[in-house]
């Protein structure tokens, strides 16, 4: 990893203009060698290897919830509800359901298998691309408004430049990383790069990436609310890559058993499918997704796609969706906010991109409840399994690049024609006093260099360096007993 250390050191010295919209890729650097570490070689990172990195990988059956490739298609809430729920025409029941925020998608949801939305994504218009228009003044990024007034962004220019340079040096076909302060919602980095389409801008706010096993965070929250505990065990056989209806039933062949916490860490699809089938209803999963802001707008100065989630009523399709195989899409910004819910003891905090005017600092906010503090604590413990024993263990144990007390969730899924390998990481650190929450997504070709888990770890590590722990003031020993 000598090269990588040189890369990160050089990134901090690069002109900070890197963060404000230049799109010409840097020359690629030599690649590392560890697939488990999220760094692949030019040849070893094959499609088959990429598909093994996370138990959420599958080309398995999903319920197609729509065939509209453009999430911006307009339509009434009731018509959208009919499209998602399988009705031929809207009725009073569907209209009433659609009236509740997030209970049904605002537009028909694209089919991941038939019309993956990344195939038609368009660049963010320059007028909306605040990061592309920002300029560096006095070590801060600022944007000029129509009247000539300048507003300072919350973005950390050094962190932004470092993550952007990583994406460029590894020539990621599509990649984005978001870092934010969970307690306040201050967004510290919105890094992106597309070697496949250098003109493409706005990836951090585009919900064109299948959520894959990241949706297990939402399913996990719903299971906890339904009374399932992190220690609850479920036994299984098979179902590691694909799930069939027979896997939902208890069987004498069920020779392996995982707790819910371990199933989260190992991203065990069949466990989440079985528990969804046993303990959740379509209504309970829809409501939890809505609380996590799926199918709802997220207020942000940069126009942000609605993360669409089709939660089907059919039993097997519902179980598949709970395991992460549904037609569910997520933006990187939303992914970091999902992780921040657990970091904030179960509260949703809106993202902030502009620093407050005046001397008053931006303080932690109350936020809207999504989970109880107890459920958020249990969810955090489950997410810790990902890093300590699960799918991100090797990446987070890499010598010289460890991130202590990190928690998170990986996700991996692939399109077939053309092949696209989506790999995610969302998480936060430290576990008990979170300072940063992150989301990272990489979309790779059959040959790849880095994946989302590796990028997510680097986003956490570099973010913590830029957001040091507050100094705790303690009284000197000589003052003990004095009042």
List the helices and strands and how they pair.
Blueprint: H1 2-13, H2 47-50, H3 77-85, H4 92-98, H5 130-133, E1 135-137, E2 140-144, E3 150-152, H6 157-169, E4 174-180, E5 187-193, E6 209-210, H7 215-225, E7 233-236, E8 256-259, H8 260-265, H9 269-279, H10 282-291, H11 315-323, E9 329-330, H12 332-343, E10 347-348, E11 368-369, H13 373-388, H14 393-396, E12 407-415, E13 420-429, E14 436-444, H15 452-466
Give helix % range.
Answer: 25-40%
Strand content: 5-15%
* End-to-end CA span: 53 Å
The number of helical runs is 15
* Largest sheet, spatial ordering of strands: 5-4-14-13-12
Describe this structure in words.
The strands form 5 sheets. Strands 5-4-14-13-12 form a 5-stranded antiparallel β-sheet. Strands 1-2-3 form a 3-stranded antiparallel β-sheet. The protein is α+β, with helices and mostly antiparallel strands. Helix 7 (215-225) packs across helix 13. The protein has helices spanning 2-13, 47-50, 77-85, 92-98, 130-133, 157-169, 215-225, 260-265, 269-279, 282-291, 315-323, 332-343, 373-388, 393-396, 452-466; strands at 135-137, 140-144, 150-152, 174-180, 187-193, 209-210, 233-236, 256-259, 329-330, 347-348, 368-369, 407-415, 420-429, 436-444. The longest helix has 16 residues, at 373-388. Helix content is 30%, strand content 14%. It has 15 helices and 14 strands.
